[in-house]
Amino acid sequence: MPNEDFQTSLQRAIDTKTKPVGSLGRMEKLAARIATVQNSLQPVMSRCQLSIFAADHGMAVAGVSAFPQDVTRQMVANFLAGGGAANVFARTLDVDVQVVDCGVAGELMANPALVSRRIDAGTANAIAGPAMTAAERDQALANGHAIGGAGDHHAACFGEMGIGNTSSASLVAAKILGLPVEALVGRGTGLDGEGLRKKKALLEDAAERTPDKLSAAAALMEYGGFEIVTMTGAMIGAAETGKIVIVDGFIATAAALCARHIAPDCERSFIYAHRSAEAGHSRVLYALGADPLLDLDMRLGEGTGALLAWPLVKAAAAMLREMASFDSAGVSGPA
């Protein structure tokens, strides 16, 4: 943890760049966050990796999504073929992508590029009972921790794919924050008015099974998806190994909420990428005191928002590392 002398030196390094003090606004705060995580006045941000965690949800069969459960498996194949929005953004930004099967319904997909960390072929129906056992939750957390801690990249983006996972994220966040689940439920993949009413009713039934407020560990066991639990562990593992974690949209922010409750120190590594159009995202961001970098009216997931924030993170580090100071450039500073 950087000490007070480091923080003083860091602020001086930012303030004495060839610019008026504070004129780069939030980019200066972003640079300071990166420097603090790396404990360096010359932070490096040149390599980023996106991990897309995929799994199915037992509650999907009840009709909480506009899309059939088969879409999870089909989209995994699409990611592996390079055809998803996340793939396109990642290629454009020179970001490595790995796709992780945490529990996609059906048999194991035979593709050597797919990272298998399957717990089971989807969770149980969380409307009727716990989504997973405590042992399954702990294994998913451990799987994610290992993935997040691996590699020598400087920043980690985490995305997800799983039909029904906005429902899962809504329930998990509602139980941790002690909010009514209705306050966090949105249209997800594009439900119409009747579909949204049905989704809210089903999730209220699910919420009634348990006390109004749960620990993060209990909320994940009762209502989580294997991809959300694995992502939670990955965020903790990445933070513990000194990586910047660029947090994506609603589902990723629900995972970040869990990670912060389970391992509070990991929060210092988190940078929130964007404000999703999904209804509950602003509520969770507010609870976390998070101010995301972008607001693009997006709600796709997959890590797309995190990827679009990566150039800002990269530029902020480069500003601190490469931008001249008044002294080094021979420029007169403020009087």
From TrEMBL:
The keyword Ribonucleoprotein does not apply. Its EC number is 2.4.2.21. One of its GO terms (biological process) is cobalamin biosynthetic process. It catalyses: 5,6-dimethylbenzimidazole + nicotinate beta-D-ribonucleotide = alpha-ribazole 5'-phosphate + nicotinate + H(+). The keyword Glycosyltransferase applies. The active site is at 302 (proton acceptor). InterPro entries: Nict_dMeBzImd_PRibTrfase, Nict_dMeBzImd_PRibTrfase_bact, Nict_dMeBzImd_PRibTrfase_N, Nict_dMeBzImd_PRibTrfase_sf. One of its GO terms (molecular function) is nicotinate-nucleotide-dimethylbenzimidazole phosphoribosyltransferase activity. Gene3D superfamilies: 1.10.1610.10, 3.40.50.10210. Keywords: Cobalamin biosynthesis, Glycosyltransferase, Transferase. This is Nicotinate-nucleotide--dimethylbenzimidazole phosphoribosyltransferase. It comes from Henriciella algicola.
